[in-house]
Amino acid sequence: MPELPEVETIVRDLQRLVTGATMKDATVLRPDLIEGEAGSLEAELPAARIDSIDRRAKNIIVSLSKSRRGADHLVINLGMTGRVLVLAGSDADPPHTGVIIGLKDGRKIVYQDVRRFGRLELLSAGEWRARSDSLGYEPLSDEFTAEALHELAKKSKVAVKVWLMDQKRVVGVGNIYASEAMFRAGIDPRKSAERLTKAEAKRLQASVREVLLEAINFRGTTLMDYRDAAGEKGEFSRRLRVYDREGEPCVTCGKKVERVVQGGRSTFFCPSCQK
DNA sequence: AACGCGCCCTGTCCGC
DNA sequence: TGCGGACAGGGCGCGT
After folding, report:
1. A114-152, pLDDT tens digit by residue?
2. pLDDT tens digits for range A44-93
3. Which candidate in A56, A58, A108, A227 is catalytic?
4. Within 13 Å of residue A95, how many CA atoms lie on the same side as its CB?
5. Which residues touch strand B (CB under 7 A)?
6. In what helix (H) or strand (E) does residue A112 lie, and over which residues does it extend?
7. Across-strand partners of A84?
8. What's the 3-state SS for A148-208?
9. Rounded distance between C-alpha atoms, residue A39 and residue A50, angstroms
């Protein structure tokens, strides 16, 4: 479900809502959501203060201090259907609640996940740094230049849309925004990454940044499950130009949007506008 | 070693 | 109405 714009929206919500809060207790209802020991997570979180909240790739990074053993980062990956909700302590826990973190101020942070593809993990600063180092370019950072994208792309024969979704290369772009970025760049998603021209690399780099920034401004895309930390839907869905629009007219040329399967995932594109 | 595929899991939708 | 199959914002581990 969540790609960079959705995770970024949740992170900004959490920054505003729970920075500086102290955890009181943690309850794990679905142990399979925890990477490592659920019991140790329940033991480590109480009394931890939330110092800051950040995003890296599609991960939410909650930086903690005063945790008993010095495990510094709670790393949350939402998988397909994960949600992080800040609720009043008296609110009922929603269906498929997996983890409840009570705060000393009476509120609670609830992790909810229907399909349970998401993961919560407690990592030391060093462990987190190593993990972060293994991930690719942040597309909204200054390091993500057209030249960098072009050089990386030259090394791979994979179809460029599939290439774009690999988190070891460029992070944060999932199935929706990959199709959208390819459309905006006017590039056939089936084209091999190594065959991208310099001009195409430049257009793709600009399109990735542009679509992600626009989607953040609309608080992400809700197709079915995505919600922000207050439980609200994202509004970018109506702005999608090709995703989930098979058979509908291309917004640019009017020809029918097509769907193909790449790497087991649907790709949507306009065969006339994308060469 | 890069790459492609199956799998994790629950819910929804569509065709018969 | 019911039922089976396909599919859904991600990512890991496997075999080649």
Report:
1. 999 999 999 999 999 999 999 999 999 999 999 999 999
2. 999 999 999 999 999 999 999 975 566 699 999 999 999 999 999 999 99
3. A58
4. 4
5. A 32, 95-96, 114-117, 156-159, 162, 224, 263-264
6. strand A107-113
7. A111
8. HHHHHHCCCCCEHHHHHCCCCCECCCCHHHHHHHHHHHCCCCCCEHHHCCHHHHHHHHHHH
9. 20
Reduce the DSSP state of residue A37 to 3 states and report it.
Answer: coil
Structure tokens at A88: 């009043």
The gap between A273 CA and C4 C1' (Å) is: 38
Where in chain A does DSSP place strands (E)? 23-28, 34-35, 49-56, 59-65, 73-77, 82-88, 97-103, 107-113, 119-123, 258-262, 265-269
> What letter represents residue A152's amino acid?
L
Give the span between the Cα atoms of A7 and A214, in whole angstroms. 14
CB under 7 Å from strand C: A 1-3, 6, 57-59, 77, 79-80, 115, 117, 165, 167, 174-176, 221-226, 261, 264-266
Instruction: Evaluate whether A183 touches A274 at the Cβ level (below 8 Å).
Output: yes
Lookup: tokens for A101: 């973190």
